[in-house]
Amino acid sequence: MTATEATERDGADGSGTAPDGSLPQPAPGATPPQAPPLTAKAAAELVGTAALVAIVVGSGIQATELTKDVGLQLLANSTATVFGLGVLIVLLGPVSGAHFNPVVTLAEWWTARRGGAGVSARELAVYVPAQMAGAIAGSFLADAMFGVPLVKWSTHNRSSGNLLLGEVVATAGLILLIFGLARTDRLRFAPVAVASYIGAAYWFTSSTSFANPAVTVGRAFTDTFAGIAPGSVPGFIAMQLVGAGVGLALVALIFMPGRKTAE
């Protein structure tokens, strides 16, 4: 079964449910599908977020060891992130939806409260801690693999206003992309589309597109190329939440359901 077929089978958001919240109908003679248990979803979010942060931090360390050219370092870091993120979405999307990002989970919960498809309050309460724990574990893992001291706070200050604006733009674009794909029933393209967007946003945003509170927290634990000083973390997370709100507003504006023409 291809990744696209698996996505179509498991529902548009990869959660095992159809867009209307019901389980998809199995093919004749097939075993009826079942939604993964919450423990499996939490494990997928923890492992996926840990792997994502390990990729971001580890490729940054590797890049700085191979070259002193900052442009090449960023190129190596962004390329590894694009490929790694795409693989993780394909692998874990059918289990948890492959959020790996608290703002994506919060946005899904918000849309579910307003009658759309998304995570429940119970899933929200499990996903976000799993993502945070996974991000920190991924940072430790990357540092351990490269012999870097563990739990060394980053000294990379990222508190200037232009970087905060970059986080608003990066996060708004990510939310617009994900929920725009969902509104147009094209989430099967999410692995390529989301990974490509993050790769591009590394370069067109001033902040190099963290766009993820869990990843932001995890990257504070490593004093390497991808790190962020703890004092810069609250500002980044605040702007990511603002960006999520902007992204959802743009989704509502751009993908507004058409009105039926009165006869």
Detailed description of the structure:
With 263 residues, the protein is mainly α. The protein contains 9 helices and no strands. α5 (121-145) packs parallel to α8 (213-219).
Average pLDDT reading: 88
Radius of gyration: 19 Å
The oligomeric status of these chains comes to single chain
Unreliable stretches (pLDDT < 50, length at least 5) are 1-32, 259-263
Helix % is 55-70%
Strand content: under 5%
Biggest sheet, in brief? none
Topology:
Layout: H1 3-10, H2 38-66, H3 70-96, H4 102-113, H5 121-145, H6 161-183, H7 190-204, H8 213-219, H9 233-254
Helix pairs in contact: 2-3, 2-5, 2-8, 3-7, 4-5, 5-8, 6-7, 6-9
Short description:
The protein is mostly helical and 263 residues long. It is 64% helix and 0% strand.
Keywords:
disordered C terminus; 9 helices; mainly alpha; 263 residues
